[in-house]
Amino acid sequence: MNREELGNTMTVRAKPAGAAVLKNNGHRDDEGESKLEPHVGLEFDSAEDSQEFYNLYATQLGFRIRIGQLYRSRVDGAVISRRFVCSKEGFQTNSRTGCPAFIRVQRLDSGKWLLANIKKEHNHELELSGEIHPPQIQRKALPAPRSSVVVSSRKGIRSHEEKDGRPSPSGVIDVKRLKREEVEGELKVEFGSANEPCKGLEFGSANEAYKFYYAYATNAGFKIRIGQLFRSKNDGSITSRRFVCSKEGHQHPSRVGCGAFMRIQRRESGKWAVDRLQKEHNHDLGSPMDPDRNIAAFKGFKEEVISGLENVDLLETNDGLSLVKRGRESNIGSDWYHVLLEYFQSRLAEDTGFFYAVEVDGGKCMSVFWADGRSRFACSQFGDAIVFDTTYRSSTHLVPFASFIGVNHHRQPVLLGCALIGDESEESFTWVFQTWLRAMSGCCPVSIITDQDKVIQQSIAKVFPRTHLRFSAWQIKAKEQQNLGALLSMDTEFKYEYEACIYQSQTPSEFDSAWNVIVNKYDLKENAWLKEMYRTRKSWVPLYIRGTFFAGITMDGSMKSFFGTFLNAQTPLNEFVLRYEKALEQHREEERKEDFNSFNLQAVLHTKDPIEEQCRRLYTMTMFKVFQKELLECYSYVGMKINVEGAVSRYLVQKCGNGDERNTVAFNASNLNVSCSCKMFEFEGVLCRHALKVFQIMNIRELPSRYILHRWTKNAKYGILRDADSGGGSQDFKALMLWSLREEARNYIEAGAASLERYKLAFEIMQEGRRNLCWQN
To answer: Partner of 564 at 20 to 30 A CA spacing, among 43, 115, 327, 710?
Structure first.
């Protein structure tokens, strides 16, 4: 029997003469032809045997199979049950129909596997059996059996006798021996000659990389564990894996926070390469270990990789087997909780507005959230457009640190809260968003920018149902290169049409039309990534984004990182709080400098337009320069009235000498409302050159107060409220007034406590102020 024949052959132990013909091992004779027929109670030597049996049965019947869920014991984590399903199970791709056909096998105390559940009915048409071929399984050559007897005329199914010539009494499928010899042989070879790992080292598969690192660790004298895995946001496939020293982390007394690890990343070719490596340990290494004691390690990793349900266990109860959710595990080391809680307590003593919360699940600490009084106060003015920064997910950060970032009145990033994410589950992100909302007095943001992640999307939809979600541009660009990189670089015509569709479409119908042309012309109808991007187009296409306020955060997503180089992937625990405080202080010092400049310096006026003087008086220095640029540009535009409907006039505004740049502006003479098709005011909160041109045509000498957003003014930081024309009553501004007074009081106390003389003066002023307040109605 050669290797190819062996790869397509299933070995079956023969039953004693006189027994029902192969019925108990899954075969049934029909007029001389042996057919596979699964049934409850069928036994196998291993889960792999049951998979091969079901695969052959599927081939015979005319369908394909996939590996489904696995279930682990809550006692020792061992796999105790597996499901194998029809390839059309589920609805993740268009080719799947939600087919219910499956078998489930369960491990017995004897170590054998029993077919416990089965559903044979399919909800789709089956193919002809000859059109499907079972996958060839690579095996090592085995010594031929001493004698074999063919008991079936069906090609590819044979039986053999035991070495002593007697038939096997068990009648179960026996493929386990082949796989065991293959696995043991490969491991022993690699253990004997483990090389040093290095960056760039390539492997054919993640399994191969694991075996290599396992062999290296065995020779070096330490043990390893499977660490984090990272999945594609598009199809859920694993794109990166970490293998770590067994003493990594602090979740157990035996662990000492060892930093040694090897990370592999999947390349476009399908191979895996080492992209990050840390060889140094912070503990003594043992003597080289005997590899024979841990042959099962590779199989354990393989089971985890192919697992379709990693957070579910199958528990044995009085009523049989029950599917239950496994207890959540935190990605945050236990020592982090102690350090942070001490820090929070010290901050509470200094800052009465400091807020923190810890998520507890099943008696275990999970996610942590905190925000100081300054961040909570800033949110009352700058919490309308936020960025939920989860940069830690794209690299090997020691701690899953996330932050809420806003944009202040100087267009600087401002901190609105921080969190450590316990695990990347919907429960964790939902808790973090709900806690942030509670800390910020229930004020939901208008918009939020974050990762294109389904779990985060679901949490945002649950907590912020009316908030416009936008995906991070840098992440979209990265995925674009992964999925369309070759086409974009090699076909200039495709690149032009693709970018024109995204960035130049003015209406949904224009976008849909251009998109359909591209996917049909370049045969991209079945591109899964493009299908998902079209489904979520409202979260990344400029056409759908620019009508929502995003505080001017540009479409390319370029926004200065708040923590920059202060916090990176390898920031240790003992430096985290110090670096966090330094970053916070640096940003707040930069904000103080801009505040000083805005109140004490004046920008140069370039026109005699009263509107320019009005905006210089109100806007911060940074925002006035943004407005001034638009005002100066409007002088190079012309406007023509094209339509009148009652009090509303429509103008076509275009640049002189450039007929391609056109925008439509609607102006209401009764209330001075203006709206431009470019949507700059809606997106950024500053009037565009096109609207300003129409104001010039209509001889408007002062901007209505609603077009000068309070958040961009010099007084925004201090929460000084404008007159009633700004809209909203006192109840709407209650949170704003509370935080404004609290922030001012904090500054007042700091100034008054500088000396005894200042204290006396501050106290007298405060008493006088309180008396004046009491006289008010």
So the answer is: 710
Tokens of 175: 């493929």
User: Per the structure block, which two tokens stand in for 305?
Assistant: 């990789």
- In 9-87, which ranges are continuous DSSP H helix? 47-61
Higher pLDDT, 294 or 481: 481
Structural Rg of the chain based on CA atoms: 34
Q: Which residues are CB-neighbours of 120 under 8 A, at least 6 positions away?
A: 38, 101
**Looking at this protein, which amino acid is placed at residue 247?**
K
Q: Position 647: which residue type?
A: A
Q: What angle do CA 483, 484, 485 make, to 5 degrees?
A: 105
- Helix/strand/coil for 266: strand
Rounded distance between C-alpha atoms, residue 184 and residue 198, angstroms: 25
What letters, b where the CB count within 10 A reaches 16 and e where it falls short, cover 65-102? bbebbbbbeeeeeebbbbbbbbebbeeeeeeeeebebb
CA distance 493 to 505: 17
Give me the amino acid identity at 167.
P
Structural tokens at position 519: 């996917």
**Amino acid letter, residue 473:** A
The 10 Å Cβ neighbour count of residue 724 is 10
- Strand duo 658-668 + 355-361: pairing: unpaired
Report the length, in residues, of the chain: 777
Measured distance CA(473)–CA(481) in Å, rounded: 12
Collapsed DSSP state (helix, strand, coil) of residue 106: strand
Render pLDDT for 401-459 as a digit per residue (tens, 0 to 9). 899 999 999 999 999 999 999 888 889 999 999 999 999 888 899 999 998 888 999 99
Note the Cα 29 to chain centre separation in Å: 53
Average pLDDT of every residue of the chain? 78
- Taking each helix axis from N to C end, the angle separating 473-490 and 492-504, rounded to the nearest 10 degrees, works out to 150
Mean pLDDT computed over 19-36: 44
Tens digits of residue pLDDT in 111-166: 898 998 898 988 888 876 554 555 443 333 333 333 333 333 333 333 333 334 44
- For 662, the token pair is 């056109």
Tell me which residue of 155, 142, 149, 201 sits closest to 36, measured CA to CA.
155
Torsion sign across C-alpha atoms 238, 240, 245, 247: negative
Sheet with strand 447-450: strands edge to edge: 355-361, 364-371, 413-420, 401-407, 385-389, 447-450, 468-471
Chain center to CA of 175? 40
Q: How far, in Å, CA of 719 to CA of 739, rounded? A: 8
Distance separating alpha carbons of residues 766 and 293, to the nearest angstrom: 77
pLDDT of residue 36: 74
